[in-house]
Recover the amino acids of this structure.
């Protein structure tokens, strides 16, 4: 099968592309290289450099390769930035995604696997009842007002329901002649759950996939994964952001002298060591999850959504300890106040993926730290010093 991977030059995308190539899929990567890296793309994959906002260029890619299915990783991912520049996230994460779905419809490409996120779940109110998080949470929780935290819209500070309505009004303005994209009341209620614009854009994408299933029979699977860390065990590809945003990467950057200190945001949580607990997942486990989801989707022709996580939580201090053990070096830390909106616990219930997809995470926190350290310590500047062989890529 021929698989088009959007955002396939990025962190998780490139590792998934490598796994697809191993499994003998014919892979085409579509990436703007805004945040992706040409050097991360497997040499057996074909690379097309263009942006999803460029409908003509994307259509040419579909005409050239005629893919059987799409795996979509193309999105902006920074939660904080999404609250400061929400229209940027609406355009890239939603409008560009609609472009992709429209082209898939026109070219009769009927399968898509979507990179979604635990951010769609927001901040569960009842941790004892709702944790670990099940997929049904998004169907069962019906808040009357938006849970959006404070952010900005055109330079004006806003939050909650007012913030959401500004976002929805702009969405409507962008698609004035697309009544099929209008959101029903139950869909708007669902969009009240996330606490960030980033989470809303990803959840809106899931809603849009359901609409395209009903209208055009494009079958989809959304994979909601939790906190990603680690690198390919080979040490050849991994996370390469200009500024690290995840805890494990920040801790490693501190050891490498790129960050002065790691702030521990809250030491007063009701947890064994007083720090927040998260479910961490290795990108290689995610890559296998995408392949399992693709095989299931094609075999069963049924849209669905799945959590991808370990089902186990690790605290901030446990993550830092794992980095110290992997690097055999000490991470410099300082205590700081809690960050607004951070939940005490965020742990996935991956049992549905286990039962339906026969998928289970294999890498533990130690593996994540060891592979991350191997990658970052040997590539402290990401792919900057990577020597590219021109013959590696089939254009």
């Amino acid at each position: 099968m021929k698989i088009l991977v959007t955002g396939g030059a990025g962190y998780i995308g490139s590792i998934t592309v490598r796994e697809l190539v191993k499994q003998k899929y014919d892979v085409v990567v579509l990436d703007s290289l805004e945040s992706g890296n040409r050097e991360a793309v497997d040499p057996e994959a074909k690379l097309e450099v263009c942006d999803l906002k460029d409908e003509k260029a994307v259509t040419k890619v579909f005409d050239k390769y005629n893919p059987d299915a799409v795996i979509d990783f193309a999105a902006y991912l920074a939660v904080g930035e999404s609250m400061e520049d929400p229209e940027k996230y609406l355009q890239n994460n939603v409008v560009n995604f609609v472009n992709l779905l429209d082209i898939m419809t026109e070219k009769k490409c009927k399968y898509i696997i979507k990179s979604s996120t635990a951010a769609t779940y927001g901040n569960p109110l009842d941790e004892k009842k709702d944790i670990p998080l099940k997929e049904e949470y998004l169907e069962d929780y019906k808040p009357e007002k938006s849970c959006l935290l404070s952010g900005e819209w055109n330079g004006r500070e806003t939050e909650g329901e007012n913030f959401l309505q500004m976002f929805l009004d702009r969405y409507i303005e962008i698609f004035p002649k697309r009544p099929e994209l209008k959101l029903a009341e139950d869909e708007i209620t669902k969009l009240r759950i996330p606490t960030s614009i980033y989470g809303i854009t990803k959840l809106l994408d899931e809603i849009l996939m359901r609409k395209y299933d009903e209208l055009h029979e494009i079958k989809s699977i959304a994979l909601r994964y939790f906190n990603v860390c680690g690198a390919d065990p080979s040490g050849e590809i991994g996370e390469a952001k200009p500024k690290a945003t995840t805890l494990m990467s920040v801790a490693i950057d501190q050891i490498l002298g790129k960050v002065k200190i790691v702030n521990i945001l809250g030491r007063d949580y009701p947890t064994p060591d007083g720090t927040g607990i998260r479910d961490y997942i290795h990108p290689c486990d995610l890559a296998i999850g995408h392949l399992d989801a693709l095989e299931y989707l094609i075999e069963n022709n049924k849209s669905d959504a799945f959590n991808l996580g370990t089902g186990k939580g690790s605290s901030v201090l446990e993550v830092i300890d794992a980095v110290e053990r992997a690097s055999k070096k000490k991470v410099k830390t300082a205590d700081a106040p809690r960050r607004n909106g951070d939940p005490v616990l965020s742990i996935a219930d991956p049992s549905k993926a286990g039962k339906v997809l026969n998928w289970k995470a294999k890498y533990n926190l130690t593996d994540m730290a060891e592979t991350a350290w191997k990658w970052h310590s040997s590539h402290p500047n990401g792919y900057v010093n990577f020597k590219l062989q021109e013959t590696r890529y089939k254009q």
Notes: The mean pLDDT is 95. The chain has 14 helices and 16 strands. Residues 86-106 form the longest helix (21 residues). The first strand starts at residue 2 and ends at 6.
